[in-house]
Design brief:
The complex is a heterodimer of chains A (115) and B (112).
Chain A lengths: L3 E2 L4 E5 L4 E7 L4 E9 L6 E7 L4 E4 L2 E6 L4 E6 L8 E9 L8 E3 L3 E6 L1
Parallel strand pairs in A: 2-11
Antiparallel strand pairs in A: 1-3, 3-8, 4-5, 4-9, 6-7, 7-8, 9-10, 9-11
Chain B lengths: L3 E4 L2 E4 L5 E7 L5 E8 L3 E10 L2 E4 L6 E7 L2 E6 L8 E8 L7 E2 L3 E5 L1
Parallel strand pairs in B: 2-11
Antiparallel strand pairs in B: 1-3, 3-8, 4-5, 4-9, 5-6, 7-8, 9-10, 9-11
Classes of the chains: A mainly beta (115), B mainly beta (112).
């Protein structure tokens, strides 16, 4: 049972345009969400996060939106740059309790930004 | 970058042999994790540690064991490697349970 879903395996956008990566989750106990970026032959790098008490968090060109009622979050990258080309993973963490430090990851979305 | 070193970075071995992967951190972080990444599966948690000698299972722990005898080192052992354990293995650390995890650069393991 996949609790965190990234339904788009890949996304291609033009440099300078907006990239929107989507993520859905099924577990209502998740209360903290993260996005990681991964280049080939490297480990994932933390990008941005959002707590369930917020609906938006912004960091430079990156903004994450959370819609709790829809159990949906999205990552917006504006403007997109060729260096943003990577695999993006959505991850979620459970609420307080024994599992509050375990992350559940989606399968990832490969973003390609074309010059 | 977080001070995380995984060794070896690449390994090829045969079915049935024991394999140990090492994760070494210089951040003095309490929490350490082992994940595997496979095509079509994303990252899946194998085992994690919340302190020296304190470890627990993740979602894909069968066939793996771990040990943490000191804060800086977290070892992942495949007692008898199988071809299904061919994967890329990532170690991650975090200082507190509510902090983002930071990852090492991975170990590519091939079991023939």
């Amino acid at each position: 049972d996949q609790q965190v879903k990234q339904n788009s395996p890949s996304l291609s956008v033009q440099e300078g345009r907006i990239s929107i990566l989507n993520c859905d989750y099924t577990n209502s106990m998740f209360d903290y969400f993260l996005w990681y970026k991964k280049y080939p032959a490297e480990g994932p790098t933390f990008l941005i996060s959002i707590s369930s008490i917020k609906d938006k968090n912004e960091d430079g060109r990156f903004t994450v939106f959370l819609n709790k009622s829809a159990k949906h979050l999205s990552l917006h990258i504006v403007p997109s740059q060729p260096g943003d080309s990577a695999v993006y993973f959505c991850a979620a963490r459970g609420s307080r309790g024994g599992s509050n430090y375990k992350l559940t990851f989606g399968k990832g979305t490969l973003l390609t930004v074309n010059p | 970058d977080a001070g995380i070193t995984q060794s070896p970075r690449h390994k090829v071995t045969e079915t049935g042999t024991p394999v140990t992967l090492r994760c070494h951190q210089t951040e003095n972080h309490r929490y350490m994790y082992w994940y595997r990444q496979d095509p079509g599966h994303g990252l899946r948690l194998i085992h994690y540690s919340y302190g020296v000698k304190d470890t627990d299972k993740g979602e894909v722990s069968d066939g793996y064991s771990v040990s943490r005898s000191k804060t800086e080192d977290f070892l992942l052992t495949l007692e008898s490697a199988t071809s299904s354990q061919t994967s890329v293995y990532f170690c991650a650390i975090s200082g507190y349970s509510n902090q983002p995890q930071h990852f090492g650069d991975g170990t590519r393991l091939s079991i023939l």
